[in-house]
């Protein structure tokens, strides 16, 4: 399969900036701390001296399924019909992608000046089932207490396959439900933690 990951890149954060996530109750949580504690390792630093962390927001998988699961007549649909169904499939994917939390986060980033320019959305393409990670998968890592107590950190959606002669073309996505990320001053975040304003 072809795997496309959309992630938050924090390589442009300075030493005094921290990536945070805001939960449903308005509490701020240090993302690098949450990822560091789940990895049981010391946080890495970026070129600006800030803590480097990477949070996967979406993982799209595109693959051709097994021919054996479908009859020959299903797979031998006329090419114009496959084309028409493909147009509908890709238009629906385009529309669906704009309903996901990562798209809303991207729109928020494009409207924010200043410190938010340090955050960027990036993507990478992987081939096959090569999803081995040296650290825990940040798509599934809980970043705040509400995510520890819930199974709704990640949701999945699978598009009905497009049947063609090469096999059924299947597209699926896994995505984080909470993409309320912000940049906070590290000292202010630490002070508020000591004062008990944030946990």
Question: Could you explain how this protein is built, in words?
Answer:
The chain is α+β, with helices and mostly antiparallel strands and 199 residues long. The chain has a single domain, classed as Cell Cycle, Spindle Assembly Checkpoint Protein, Chain A, CATH 3.30.900. Helices cover 29% and strands 33% of the residues. A hairpin with a 2-residue loop joins strand 8 and strand 9. The relative contact order is 0.28. Pfam families: ATG13. This is Autophagy-related protein 13. Belongs to the ATG13 family. Fungi subfamily. Keywords: Autophagy.
Main beta sheet, described? 5 strands, antiparallel
Average pLDDT rating: 82
Please give the radius of gyration in angstroms.
Answer: 20 Å
Number of helices: 6
Structural class: alpha+beta
Strand order of the largest sheet: 7-1-6-9-8
Fraction of helical residues: 25-40%
Number of extended strands: 10
**Assembly state of the chains shown:** single chain
- Give the low-pLDDT segments: none
User: Proportion of β residues?
Assistant: 25-35%
Q: What count of structural domains?
A: 1
CATH topology tier name: Cell Cycle, Spindle Assembly Checkpoint Protein, Chain A
Name given to the CATH homologous superfamily: HORMA domain
Q: How far is the N terminus from the C terminus?
A: 40 Å
Kindly list the characteristics that best describe this protein.
10 strands; elongated; single chain; Cell Cycle, Spindle Assembly Checkpoint Protein, Chain A; 199 residues; five-stranded antiparallel sheet
Strand and helix layout:
Elements: E1 2-9, E2 17-22, E3 28-30, H1 31-39, E4 44-45, E5 51-52, E6 54-64, H2 72-75, H3 79-97, H4 101-111, E7 120-127, H5 145-148, E8 154-164, E9 167-176, E10 181-185, H6 186-195
Antiparallel strand pairs: 1-6, 1-7, 2-3, 2-10, 4-5, 6-9, 8-9
């Amino acid at each position: 399969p072809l795997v496309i990951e959309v992630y938050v890149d924090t390589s442009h954060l300075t030493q005094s900036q921290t990536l945070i996530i805001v939960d449903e109750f308005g509490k701020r949580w240090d993302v690098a701390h949450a990822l560091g504690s789940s990895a049981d390792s010391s946080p890495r630093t970026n070129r600006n001296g800030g803590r480097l962390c990477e949070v996967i927001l979406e993982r799209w998988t595109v693959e051709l399924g097994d021919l054996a699961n479908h009859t020959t007549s299903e797979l031998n649909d006329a090419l114009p019909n496959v084309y028409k169904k493909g147009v509908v499939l890709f238009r629906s994917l385009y529309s669906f992608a704009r309903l996901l939390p990562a798209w809303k986060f991207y729109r928020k980033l494009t409207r924010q000046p200043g410190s938010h320019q340090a955050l960027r959305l990036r993507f990478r393409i992987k081939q096959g089932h090569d999803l081995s990670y040296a650290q825990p998968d940040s798509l599934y890592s809980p970043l705040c207490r509400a995510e520890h107590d819930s199974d709704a950190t990640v949701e999945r959606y699978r598009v009905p396959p497009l049947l063609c002669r090469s096999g059924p073309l299947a597209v699926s996505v896994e995505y984080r439900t909470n993409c309320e990320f912000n940049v906070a001053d590290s000292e202010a975040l630490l002070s508020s933690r000591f004062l008990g304003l944030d946990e």
